[in-house]
Design brief:
Number of helices: 23
Strand order of the largest sheet: 2-1-3-4-5-11
Radius of gyration: 59 Å
Distance between the termini: 138 Å
Strand content: 15-25%
Helix content: 40-55%
CATH architecture of the largest domain: 3-Layer(aba) Sandwich
Shape: elongated
Structural class: alpha/beta
């Protein structure tokens, strides 16, 4: 009885015949079209022309990668022509002669720069008929698995792709470990016989199973022989789709029928995958396409094929078809590591994970959000408790401290006053907030306080100021107010917090001290004046008289030895020098030039005398200095000049000094500088040396400032700045008295 599957397959007989005829006609039509298009494109002189020869119905998708690789490496325009030589009679010599003549006529008008031959039979044809079709054109081959391709082909190079026959057989035995026989299904062409021999050699080498050869055309008899195979048999399918010895049944239909009954493997992925076969070991067609494109590009760029080594690509990868794996109940764990599974149907997790993952993520996010809210709530309560405790500690500390503590917001509105403030001013604890505190500030100080406060709010920086604040008994007291900016939790400005302390007693003590210092300096100046007057009016006069008497004695004496006269003259000179020194000391103690000729002349004269006395160079310059300044200012600047030059001579180690006296606006500036050794200013302040204290006291008494700039090795510069104030001789004393009385009134 005829096999039902064979009967069904035979129904495709006439349909297969018509498909074969149509494919043959389209092949020749394609060749002719390529020839006509080639003649048209040949008119482009700078273009590169590449002809692709193959024996397939159409080029696989991977060939697009080959073309893009060539275009990315070759700057010129590239024209690709494709010609399929697929035909049942391709292996007949007469047909190949006719095909060569057809190709020669079709591409006679095209200057080919390279020919790409796909598969080993096409490579043999291209090499054999190259001189007739495209003489001298380099050949790049690909999709060639025969080891014979490694032999040197003249003017040809390419990619040899290893056929995974050994690996495919090993995969079959691994996945079906109970296999006892392997049936090799193949055709009767020379190509089929070659690969049958390769499979036979590999099975002999392994020697694990029995080999059954099923050789013949694709017909019902072949299906019958397959049906008679014993159990525990797998098939190695090598029957090509273009083997049409018996066109009644397509080889692919044979493959589909066989794969349903027996586990089927193939070293060609097109004869296994997607047709019921389990799979095999296959090359990476995309990698081969890229390698092939690189070789074609090198040929188009001028390299000789003989100089481009043939690439032997042995990188194989196992691929299986998921429906076949499930059909034969092959566990996934049995697959070799790295096996690619095609057509795998997603499981529940794979199908629904795009919904499950977001759902789980949403649930986790909600749980985390709820946990975060609870944690935040707990932290907030804890922070509020800590804040309340901190505020309570602050209020206790602020209310018990002797300072007057206050706080304000960003607009300057007072928001807090401690108990000491309200007790000091007698203000109501509530009504003292806002702007009402300004009512307790002395009217003469109010503008300065308001301006300083406004500037601090604008700059948001720490500030301090001293002003008078009315006490609860109506008496104004001096207070020192120091404030620093406050910040919120996010770092933003929140206002100021400040404290004020009563400094009235300190100001009274400071005023009294300044008065005493002024009196001491005044007493010192009076004593200096008296001593200078005595030296000038008494000692200097007596020394001058003694010098004259010695000179007169020396002139009137007769009969004295010459040595005695010389001694008298020497004594007279010493006496005169002593008189000059005493007179210089008198001027230094009290300069009469200061009283009659002004500060500039007095300092200039002192600089000249100082230069002669100490044998140094003092350069003096003055600009816009009034002839007559108040006595206390003139005396202050004169004494600072004296002290600074004396210190410079002692410690600077240089002989060049500069004194400058200038009037700028309503200030007098005195600068004494040198480029000597310098000193450590901080150390000098600690030791209270170099006359700094004396100079500072004098300048402070005339409401000026003394600045000292010095570094070891960089010289010294002393700057005294004194405001010009018209005062009489007793102005300093009267001013000190007025200050003391003012502080007493405040107190």
């Amino acid at each position: 009885m005829e096999n039902p599957r064979v009967a069904v397959l035979c129904s495709f007989r006439w349909a297969s015949i018509w498909r074969l005829c149509a494919r043959t006609w389209l092949t020749f039509l394609g060749i002719m079209v390529c020839g006509l298009s080639g003649a048209f494109v040949a008119a482009e002189p700078n273009a590169k022309n590449v002809l692709i020869l193959h024996n397939w119905a159409s080029l696989p998708p991977s060939w697009a990668l080959m073309e893009s690789t060539v275009r990315s490496r070759v700057p010129e325009q590239i024209n690709f022509y494709t010609a399929s030589v697929e035909n049942p009679r391709f292996y007949e010599e007469a047909y190949q002669e006719s095909l060569a003549e057809t190709l020669q006529r079709g591409y006679s008008g095209v200057k080919l720069d390279a020919v790409v031959a796909a598969t080993y039979p096409v490579l043999q044809f291209a090499v054999q008929y190259r001189d007739k079709i495209f003489p001298g054109v380099p050949i790049v081959f690909t999709d060639v698995s025969n080891v014979e391709a490694l032999k040197p082909w003249p003017g040809a190079t390419g990619v040899v792709s290893v056929l995974g026959m050994k690996e495919t057989i090993g995969l079959a035995l691994r996945l079906q470990p109970d296999t006892k026989a392997i049936a090799v299904i193949t055709g009767v062409s020379d190509w089929d016989k070659y690969w049958l021999a390769v499979a036979h050699a590999e099975l002999l080498r392994q020697g694990k199973v029995r080999e059954i050869d099923i050789v013949g055309p694709a017909d019902s008899q072949l299906l019958g022989r397959v049906a008679a195979l014993p159990s525990h048999t797998v098939t190695l399918f090598q029957l090509r789709p273009n083997d049409t010895t018996n066109p009644a049944i397509e080889p692919i239909d044979i493959l589909n029928a066989v794969a349903q009954r027996i586990p089927t493997y193939s070293a060609w992925q097109g004869l296994a995958l997607n047709h019921g076969g389990v799979g095999g070991a296959y090359r990476d067609v995309w990698k081969d396409a890229s390698l092939n494109g690189q070789m074609v590009a090198r040929v188009l760029l001028g390299e000789r094929p003989e100089d481009i080594p043939i690439v032997y690509d042995s990188n194989l990868k196992f691929r299986v078809d998921w429906p076949a794996v499930q059909h034969w109940r092959i566990p996934v764990s049995a697959l070799p590591p790295g096996t690619q599974i095609d057509n795998q149907q997603p499981n529940f997790w794979q199908r629904e994970r795009k919904f499950i993952i977001p759902g789980i993520a949403l649930i986790i996010a909600q749980a985390l959000l709820i946990a975060g809210l609870l944690l935040q709530r707990a932290r907030k309560r804890k922070a509020e408790a800590v804040l309340r405790e901190s505020e309570e500690r602050f209020r206790v500390m602020a209310d018990t401290t002797p300072s007057l503590i206050w706080m304000c917001d960003t607009r300057g509105k007072v928001t807090y006053l401690n108990d000491q403030w309200t007790a000091f001013t007698g203000a109501d604890p509530i009504s003292g907030h806002g702007d009402s505190w300004v009512a307790y500030v002395h009217p003469d100080d109010l503008k300065n306080v308001s301006d300083t406060f406004s500037q601090a709010l604008a700059s948001r920086k720490r500030f301090s100021q001293e002003y008078r604040l009315r006490r609860s008994d109506g008496v104004y007291r001096w207070v020192l107010n120091i404030a620093s900016p406050r910040v919120n939790g996010d770092g933003s400005f929140a206002g100021f917090i400040g404290s004020a302390i009563d400094t009235t007693e300190q100001k009274l003590a400071q005023t009294a001290l300044e008065k005493v210092s002024g009196q001491l300096i005044e007493a010192q100046e009076k004593e200096r004046t008296r001593i200078a007057r005595d030296l000038h009016d008494d000692i200097c006069q007596r020394l001058a008289l003694l010098s004259m008497e010695l000179e007169q004695t020396n002139r009137s004496s007769k009969g004295l030895p010459m040595a005695a006269k010389e001694n008298l003259e020497e004594i007279r000179k010493h006496c005169s020098e002593i008189a000059d020194d005493v007179q210089s000391l008198s001027h230094e103690l009290h300069s009469s030039k200061l009283d009659y000729l002004g500060i500039a002349t007095a300092i200039k004269g002192f600089c000249n005398e100082f230069s002669k006395q100490h044998k140094v160079n003092v350069e003096f310059t003055e600009r816009n200095v009034p002839k007559h300044l108040p006595k206390d200012i003139s005396l202050c600047l004169f004494r600072v000049t004296q002290e600074a030059l004396h210190n410079a001579v002692k410690y600077s180690g240089t002989s060049q000094y500069r004194v400058e006296l200038n009037t700028i606006s309503d200030e007098v500036q005195l600068v004494v500088s040198d480029s000597g050794a310098g000193f450590d200013l901080e150390e000098a302040k600690k030791n209270r040396g170099l006359g700094l204290v004396s100079m500072q006291e004098r300048v402070h008494l005339v409401h000026g400032q003394l600045l000292v700039e010095s570094e070891p090795g960089n010289g010294t510069k002393i700057l005294a700045v004194v405001p010009l104030v018209a005062e009489n001789e007793s102005s300093s004393e009267d001013g000190a008295v007025r200050d003391a009385e003012r502080v007493k009134e405040v107190a």
